[in-house]
Amino acid sequence: MSSAVPFPPAEATPPPAAPAPHGSEVRDFAEESLMRTAEALHEARAASPAEISQAIAMIRESHANGKPAELLETLARIQGHDEEHLSPVILELGNKVAHTRSPYAPLIPFAGKLIAPSAFYDSFDQIHKLARLLLSPVIYAEDTDSIGTASVNPVASAILAAEIESVVFKRFGIRPFLTISRLDYESWTFLTRKHFEL
Question: Quick one: 111 exposed, middle or buried, by C-beta within 10 A (0-12, 13-18, 19+)?
Fold first, then answer.
């Protein structure tokens, strides 16, 4: 998408986000996820530019207060959907975002039953902090050979996966097999609470 998308620019000096080893870098990842998701939503005509802009402003405010927030969930609420109707709406928004991306991130309905990869998070604390900010849990990690990330938002998972690949390669000189998947709203809220104590 071109830079002509009518969304508000990031602040010149963003306030501190959630604590991380490289604070400004983590904020950059969050901003990248926010803008790429907004562009995908715009491309898919999933919401009006005004709704997307309002959601972006709310996400930035949340990040400024050190709280992670997800654009798809925020947008669904701005569009007036009640709590009991969020799940299908967020699933549909996620479908629309996923269709703008290649490869397509499949929905994994059983991901909520997977055990949190605590040893992986312990070894890669910066990844855990980034996953928390992006609200994209690592759903499995077979050592450093095969790693999967998932979220309601495939853009957030793709950004996290790329950073995992970079960090693992820098430390071990290997490129893991990475999968990017989508979660239903209920699994996502369960896993983000479990993985990030939200």
Answer: buried
Would you call 63 helix, strand, or coil by DSSP? helix
DSSP H helices, 44-123, are 49-64, 71-78, 86-98, 118-123
Q: What is the pTM of this model?
A: 0.86
Degrees (nearest 5) of the Cα angle 71, 155, 23? 75
* Residue 88, token pair as written in the block: 């299908």
Pick from 131, 140, 94: which is nearest to 20 by CA? 131
Do 132 and 196 meet the contact criterion of CB atoms below 8 Å apart? yes
Written as tens digits, the pLDDT of the chain (198 aa) is 444 445 555 543 333 333 334 556 777 999 999 999 999 999 999 999 999 999 999 999 999 998 999 999 999 999 998 888 999 999 999 999 999 999 899 999 888 788 889 999 999 999 999 999 999 999 999 988 999 999 999 999 999 999 999 999 999 999 999 999 999 999 999 999 999 988
Distances (CA, A) of 146 to 57, 92, 110, 177: 36, 28, 18, 5
Q: Quick one: DSSP state of residue 16?
A: P
